[in-house]
Design goal:
The protein is mainly α and 250 residues long. It contains 9 helices and 5 strands. 40% of the residues lie in helices and 10% in strands. The two termini are 41 Å apart.
Length: 250
Amino acid sequence: MINGRIVGKQRNGDIIIRPDADSIEDVEAMIRRRKLIITLQQFDVNKVTRAQQQKAHALINDINSYSNNDPLYLAENDLKYKFCQSINYPTDPMFSLANCSKELASLFISYLVEYCFYHDIPFDRKELHLEFNLSRLMFLSSVYNRCFVTQMRRQDAVLHIHHVNAVGIGKRDEADHRNRYYMILTAELHNEIHQLGYWRFCEKWHVGAVKLTDEQLLEMNLMTKKQMEERDSDPDYEIKDWQLPEKKVA
């Protein structure tokens, strides 16, 4: 799909069209192939975008590659059908990524992302934050133990738990890790967040921290059940209400 804007009309009747930045390469490819006749269609603000189409197809490719290398069209049709069932959307006729609504495309992308998490499928997270709810993405990353930035799995990279609310050197066994903010990062990114600071790091990578549940703290060996019970049995003990670090105004 080529997108552009009509910017003028010449005296001989020719219409001047300026392609959008993401369509320039396609236009240049058409010129090289001498395909100079095109069909124009009025722009629909609610229609699926090119970026959504690319992201959806990239995710379908990732799922297909990690499955049994079935034909791509079978994988796409199967995923569309499962998606429609999950939101009670009609399947006859089946929607098309070529002309569906922007809202439906967004829901489908969200479904594909969660499908990858649930089935432990690695995927290319490039610009995923533009098409997916950030809070949900961070929640899924923590539940399925993936790097918040790269979405790499533990079997693919060394992952660290980053404490946004620092516990201090030598005090982690004694600290109550509940209600603190955390991030799961690769070793390299863990070093980077210490260098940049929380807010600069999050702005660079479009991520954010989450609070882990008691079950996640136990699974990640940050606390034991005994430690939690000992603190909870103390009537004078109160879990601190930790907050994100204050954002400095430049």
